């Protein structure tokens, strides 16, 4: 082939490639970073640029609701990664309203303190916020502050909608002299944002995808604040349970819970038939597979529930009256109590049920893992009981019920709740059964 022919072919090749690239850039419906599909030119496929999705939650929300919001956002990232390359940035924990231990309501607890990061990464790519700072630096490109539509009231017709609007309430961010926005950012003073936007939103998590792919497509890092505004894309389906199954506890906390089960409750995974496969993707059991340890467990929510849900929360006496028949029915050697009740209330319960027991963490464990770590140990112990009964509308109880579904307990010994003093009987929890 002559040099002239080679030059002509090269010119034609670059003209075609330039035309394809220009067309993609001019189309507003395409991502600015979407790779050119050029199989016919045999030049390969470009890799999408890496982007970071951060999220934050209303400060008043508790530990277990935050775990639920994580699943909503993780599912969103999984959906977007069908075409893009997003990494979910895990927001540091604390201080939370329900963490009451004096002197330990600190912030900046990393996710690895409470959860198995390697397990999370088997569902979607995740990194700690501090690792994000190392990779990206302390400046976030866009903050999207979600809010409900002004004046909207649910009328029986649900409609998904989202739009950038004026801020209805003053957000927790302000613009400084350098043009950047500063706010809480989990207690990291150096962190700031280039741009800030208020978005009124109503719908499932996927409703933000078009905005992330168009209006904010140039941003490498995007923070969605008030992420609890977004609903689960598909609550209770296989994808929901994949996200939930990946949310395994940190091994040190599991080990401490297992030690308490073994030493105080005569409970082991082999005897209880509750052994988990090391990889959650390979763990699948039928309902009724697990037996549980020779104890029953109860989550008895007190404190703010005594005011916010007074009709559904029983007195200590009424609690005992409900637990005593269960002790006899399941021939329980112990009754494990997970509760935020003060010591005097627990001692009152022990007058009725001498075999009642609770987990009291050593000071060094409480100092290292805080109230969040103690809550996880409580949940882990409750999850392995032969029978579990929780508190109405408590996300703490919900998470235990999910854990028991994963372990393979019969729904009859999982989805139960205590009745209030004025309730002869009460509606029991909805049975959100695991799906694989």
Order of helices and strands: HEHEHEHEEEEEHEHHHEHHEHEHEH
Portion in beta strands: 15-25%
Number of domains: 2
Distance between the termini: 59 Å
**What percent of the residues sit in helical stretches (DSSP H or I)?**
25-40%
Average pLDDT number:
88
Organism: Priapulus caudatus
Enzyme class: transferase
Signal peptide: 1-23
Pfam family, one: O-FucT
Structural notes for this entry:
Strand 11 (334-339), helix 11 (343-352) and strand 12 (356-357) form a beta-alpha-beta unit. Helix 12 packs across helix 13. The chain has 2 domains: 50-229, Rossmann fold (3-Layer(aba) Sandwich), CATH 3.40.50.11340; 249-413, Rossmann fold. The strands form 3 sheets. The protein has a 7-stranded mixed β-sheet with strand order 3-2-1-9-4-8-5. A 4-stranded parallel β-sheet has the order 12-11-10-13, with helices on both faces. A two-stranded antiparallel sheet has the order 6-7. Helices cover 34% and strands 16% of the residues. The model is unreliable at 1-44 (pLDDT under 50). The chain is globular. The chain is an alpha/beta fold and 436 residues long. It is an enzyme of class 2 (transferase). It catalyses: L-threonyl-[protein] + GDP-beta-L-fucose = 3-O-(alpha-L-fucosyl)-L-threonyl-[protein] + GDP + H(+); L-seryl-[protein] + GDP-beta-L-fucose = 3-O-(alpha-L-fucosyl)-L-seryl-[protein] + GDP + H(+). Pathway: Protein modification; protein glycosylation.
Set down the secondary structure blueprint.
Elements: H1 3-26, E1 50-55, H2 63-80, E2 85-90, H3 117-121, E3 126-128, H4 129-136, E4 139-147, E5 161-165, E6 174-175, E7 181-182, E8 192-202, H5 209-213, E9 221-225, H6 238-246, H7 251-265, H8 269-272, E10 293-300, H9 305-308, H10 316-329, E11 334-339, H11 343-352, E12 356-357, H12 363-383, E13 385-389, H13 395-407
Parallel strand pairs: 1-2, 1-9, 2-3, 4-8, 4-9, 10-11, 10-13, 11-12
Antiparallel strand pairs: 5-8, 6-7
Helix pairs in contact: 2-6, 7-12, 10-11, 12-13
Keywords: Carbohydrate metabolism, Endoplasmic reticulum, Fucose metabolism, Signal, Transferase
Main location: endoplasmic reticulum
Protein name: GDP-fucose protein O-fucosyltransferase 2
């Amino acid at each position: 082939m002559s040099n002239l022919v080679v030059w002509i072919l090269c010119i034609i090749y670059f003209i075609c490639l330039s035309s394809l690239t220009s067309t993609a850039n001019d189309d507003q419906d395409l991502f600015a970073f979407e790779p050119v599909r050029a199989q016919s030119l045999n030049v390969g496929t470009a890799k999408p640029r890496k982007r970071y999705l951060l999220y934050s939650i209303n400060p008043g929300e508790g530990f277990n609701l935050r775990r639920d919001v994580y699943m909503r956002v993780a599912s969103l990232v999984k959906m977007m990664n069908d075409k893009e390359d997003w990494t979910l940035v895990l927001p540091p924990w604390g201080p939370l309203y329900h963490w009451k231990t004096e002197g330990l309501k600190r912030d900046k607890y990393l996710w690895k303190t409470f959860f198995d990061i390697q397990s999370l990464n088997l569902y979607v790519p995740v990194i700690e916020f501090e690792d994000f700072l190392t990779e990206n630096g302390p400046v976030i490109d866009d903050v999207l502050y979600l809010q409900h539509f002004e004046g909207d009231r649910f009328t029986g017709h649900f409609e998904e909608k989202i739009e950038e609007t004026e801020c209805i309430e003053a957000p927790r961010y302000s613009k400084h002299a350098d043009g950047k926005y500063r706010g809480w950012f989990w207690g990291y003073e150096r962190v700031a944002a280039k741009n800030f936007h208020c978005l009124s939103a109503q719908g499932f998590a996927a409703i933000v995808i078009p905005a992330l792919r168009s209006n904010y497509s140039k941003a490498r890092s995007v923070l969605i604040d008030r992420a609890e505004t977004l609903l689960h894309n598909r609550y209770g389906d296989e994808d929901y349970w994949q996200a939930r199954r990946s949310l395994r506890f940190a091994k040190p906390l599991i080990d401490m819970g297992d030690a308490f089960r073994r030493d105080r409750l005569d409970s082991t995974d082999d005897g209880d038939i509750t052994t988990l496969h090391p990889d959650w993707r390979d763990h699948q059991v039928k309902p009724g597979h697990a037996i549980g340890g020779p104890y029953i467990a109860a989550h008895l929510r007190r404190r703010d529930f005594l005011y916010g849900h007074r009709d559904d929360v029983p007195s200590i006496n009424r609690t005992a009256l409900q637990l005593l028949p269960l002790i006899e029915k399941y021939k329980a050697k112990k009754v494990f109590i997970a509760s935020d009740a003060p010591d005097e209330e627990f001692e009152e319960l022990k007058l009725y049920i001498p075999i009642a027991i609770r987990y009291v963490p050593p000071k060094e464990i409480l100092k290292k893992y805080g109230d969040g770590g103690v809550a996880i140990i409580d949940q882990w112990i409750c999850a392995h009981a032969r029978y579990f009964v929780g508190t109405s509308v408590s996300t703490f109880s919900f998470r235990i019920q999910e854990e028991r579904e994963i372990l393979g307990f019969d729904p009859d010994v999982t989805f139960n709740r205590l009745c209030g003093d004025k309730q002869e009987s009460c509606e029991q929890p909805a049975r959100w059964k695991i799906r694989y």
